[in-house]
Design a protein that fits this description.
Radius of gyration: 49 Å
Shape: elongated
Strand content: 25-35%
Distance between the termini: 73 Å
Number of helices: 4
Largest sheet: 6 strands, antiparallel, barrel
Length: about 425
């Protein structure tokens, strides 16, 4: 009886060994590894979506710029500003400028006009006096000429030759005096008129200065042309502030129209492959993450730029058009987060990017066949964050290694680096 029990135990042990040996490959397949620590992925066919994330803020589609009046060419000092982000009504004062400079310009203009007017009066008086003197000189010269002509000594029987010559000289001199008086009067009149014209021009300049100052004084208060939210405009990363000097035509703030908003978001240059107009997007407001809004890409900047001059990372500015504007929640300047769908494919095979390796310039995967992993060349398609489409070389149900099976476990980091080289390093 004891021997029989021993035989039964030995038979059971033999059967157990045979079953265990046969089940090892099956167990390995079920567990997903052919050696300890080797991760395996089962290939599936389905949807592939390439999305990128971006952050930005809301802007109004239409906004009215506010600043110094364009007719004011001099610099103005900001004396008061409405609070940034405050709601304002139509006609409400939002900006005031310091009147000191304008008032000084007005004072100088009045002084210059009075001075010019006084000089004009003096010049006209001097001109009248000089003209009277020249007229008297001309009359005297004419009388002398008439006298010389009337009493000219011509008769040789009465007058001696020297008297006749002297009489002719007197007549010629009187003629010259008359002509000189006429010419002097004309020249003086022209010079006097020129001086008077210059003084009139000076007076007109003073009047223009006065008009400019008076117009500027009336425009020192900027009022809201319509209701909205008062938003200061940054210049070189700095918002306008009280005491700052600004020039006419340079905007200080804007008054957005809240009925229609858009989003300006920034996509990392490395993630921008395939970014174009017409793509679909979804966004949420950081302050209200429970709400999601549909949008469409309407503009992509042609050149990537830095968002911060001190940080070398570059972004593409993207404009998103909202399908609807929620005026109660959406405000200019609010921060938003968005997801842009760059590519969406159906019924394709996609695998983790770490499953792709490079061998002599070829893209390969390690597929499990007949109890071992064998290298298979594949053709890649679109890439996304952490995944890549395999256009050719794999089928649904294939099991592939996520680490090079020919390297020890401590070389996983090197394999991962190999998987990220070539086309796998571009895009996300």
């Amino acid at each position: 009886m004891k021997l029989k029990q021993i035989v039964i135990v030995l038979v059971c042990l033999a059967v157990l060994v045979l079953v265990t040996t046969a089940a090892v490959p099956v167990l390995r397949d079920l567990i997903g590894t052919s050696e300890p620590g080797l991760p395996v992925y089962t290939v599936e066919q389905g949807e592939f979506v390439h999305r990128v994330f971006a952050e930005g803020h809301f802007e109004a589609v239409d906004a009215t710029l506010l600043g110094p009046p364009p007719e004011v060419t001099d610099a103005l000092k900001i004396a008061w500003l409405a609070e940034d982000g405050s709601r304002v009504d139509e006609g409400e004062v939002v900006i005031r400028f310091d009147p000191t400079e304008m008032e000084e310009d007005l004072r100088r203009g009045n002084h210059d006009r009075e001075t010019a007017q006084s000089k004009i009066v003096q010049q006209e008086a001097r001109e009248r006096a000089a003209s009277n003197n020249l007229e008297r000189d001309a009359e005297m010269a004419s009388l002398e000429l008439n006298y010389a002509q009337e009493f000219q000594s011509k008769d040789q029987r009465i007058f001696s030759r020297s008297e006749i010559i002297e009489s002719e000289i007197n007549q010629d001199l009187a003629t010259r005096k008359r002509d000189h008086a006429a010419e002097a009067g004309a020249v003086h009149s022209e010079l006097a008129q020129t001086e008077l014209d210059l003084l009139v021009i000076g007076r007109r300049q003073a009047e223009i200065k006065i008009e400019h100052a008076e117009k500027g004084l009336t425009a020192l208060e900027v009022r809201a042309p319509h209701a909205g939210i008062f938003v200061l405009k940054e210049q070189w990363g700095r918002s306008p502030e009280v005491g700052q000097m600004v020039w006419g035509g340079n905007p200080i703030a804007e008054l957005p129209k809240l009925d229609k908003m858009k989003a300006e978001v920034f996509v990392l240059e490395a993630d921008a492959g395939g970014l174009k107009e017409g793509l679909a997007a979804r966004l949420v407001i950081e302050a209200h993450p429970e709400m999601e809004y549909e949008a469409t890409v309407t503009k992509v900047d042609a050149v990537a730029q830095r968002r911060n001059r001190r940080v070398p990372v570059q972004y593409f500015r993207v404009t998103l058009e909202l399908q609807e504007t929620d005026a109660e929640l959406m405000k200019p300047g609010q921060r938003v987060r968005s997801v842009l769908t760059l590519e969406e494919l159906d019924d394709v095979i996609s695998v983790p990017r770490q499953a792709i390796f490079e061998d002599e310039g070829k893209r390969i995967v390690y597929r499990h066949e007949d109890g071992a992993f064998k290298s298979v060349e594949v053709e890649l398609g679109a890439t996304a964050l952490g995944r890549v489409v395999v256009a050719e070389g794999l089928s649904a149900g294939d099991r592939i290694a996520l680490r090079d099976p020919n390297r020890p476990a401590d070389g996983a980091s090197e394999s991962g680096a190999a998987a990220g080289s070539g086309p796998m390093g571009a895009g996300s």
